[in-house]
């Protein structure tokens, strides 16, 4: 046990989180919200479930709604996001190493610690409810352990824990900010490398991953305008994409909106829209009727590109390796001039000579961490090498399938330099493809840096951190 652990007698009087609201001194015996949160954390850990899919399904199945659903959602998503910080604090308060703690007990401790540090639930209620949960789900033998750990956690507030546990900001700014904003160090390092700073902008992008993002819709070209879509949905036209609409994060399930149900609109990050649109804006000499999306599933960009190609009398070939994802592409592009191929984009049996090709390659997804609560803890730095190999191979294939004078857009939802500039530089060296200044194809989007490639950022643009390089073949 760490010698520096705070003793209860030394607790400063003001150490409690300041914003507690009054609440029941004991949680109700039946606690569906916390049980749903615990079961979701377990599904995320054991089955690699996505919290934002598993929790709504579970709430629905158990008919949990209203305040219980809201509490379950806050606790689940909050504990998923903050996991690294919560674990560091729990480890400091636990006599056992976390690897020796029963995994369900650890999930419950994460929920309890989250309640103590980041909610206004009274400390005694947070501890009692978690201990009851442990007693019911893990067994009464471990309830005392949970109680002891959480009482120690409650001796300091979040700020004080960070001061105690985080590396010194002056000597290790990345390590400090990684713990403060609950990101793995390698992710904070990747953001820092891409931004070229360890200062305020790094802090801003890490903080942006914890903000609830607006829901972005895309209007289907030729069917509905962004203004009409905004009027119907009560949203606002997006600042940069002519097809985009932003909805308030709390405005309910966008899948229930009529234009989405009818197929006139879809959920799509504005950054994704902008990268697909950039490909369509590059000037071409000669033919412009054969477009290709080499990594199309689940079909967001294929729908946008397919709509534009169809309006112009062209076609889009959409390649996807995974069968179930190809089915999603087929579904989302129904009625458009889109041909879906289930095949490996590195060696598809397609006739070369495409005019415009999109490679929206599989990636670490570090650019969309705000949309998936558990995502930042799921990938590791060891994933990068394999992904960059695949990205390079797909981009080389795309260039081979493009006619001379045609254009390729290489897109990833990650700012990791190995996945972005590294892949592009390597392929340009091998093929002689000519990088274009992509910034000119993102009209009116500010803060695009030195070019030639475009890196969007949540804290600058309100989009996912999408990267886009445009290469003339
Ligand atoms: C980033 S996602 C594409 C997102 C899509 N463009 C959209 O906007 O909805 C990458 C896709 O590439 C697919 N993929 C992975 N390896 C592939 C390969 N070798 N050939 C073709 N598709 C592949 C994955 O299954 C995944 O659906």
From TrEMBL:
List keywords of the entry alphabetically: Methyltransferase, RNA-binding, S-adenosyl-L-methionine, Transferase
Among InterPro entries, the record links this protein to: MeTrfase_RsmB-F_NOP2_cat, MeTrfase_RsmB-F_NOP2_dom, NusB-like_sf, NusB_RsmB_TIM44, RCMT, RsmB/NOL1/NOP2-like_CS, SAM-dependent_MTases_sf
Q: Where is this region: Disordered?
A: 1-32
Annotated ranges, domain SAM-dependent MTase RsmB/NOP-type: 191-473
Q: Which GO terms describe its biological process?
A: regulation of DNA-templated transcription; RNA methylation
The superkingdom of the source organism is Bacteria
A GO molecular function term, named singly, is: RNA methyltransferase activity
EC assignment: the record states: 2.1.1.176
Q: Where does the record place the catalytic residues? A: 413
Q: Which residues bind S-adenosyl-L-methionine?
A: 295-301, 320, 344, 360
Feature: compositional bias, Basic and acidic residues: 20-32
What are the Basic residues biased-composition ranges?
Answer: 1-19
SUPFAM superfamilies per record: NusB-like, S-adenosyl-L-methionine-dependent methyltransferases
Record's Pfam families? Methyltr_RsmB-F (PF01189), NusB (PF01029)
> What PANTHER family does this protein map onto?
NOP2 YEAST -RELATED NOL1/NOP2/FMU SUN DOMAIN-CONTAINING (PTHR22807), RIBOSOMAL RNA SMALL SUBUNIT METHYLTRANSFERASE B-RELATED (PTHR22807:SF53)
This chain's function reads:
May act as RNA methyltransferase.
Q: Which family does it belong to?
A: Belongs to the class I-like SAM-binding methyltransferase superfamily. RsmB/NOP family.
- Annotated protein name in UniProt: 16S rRNA (Cytosine967-C5)-methyltransferase
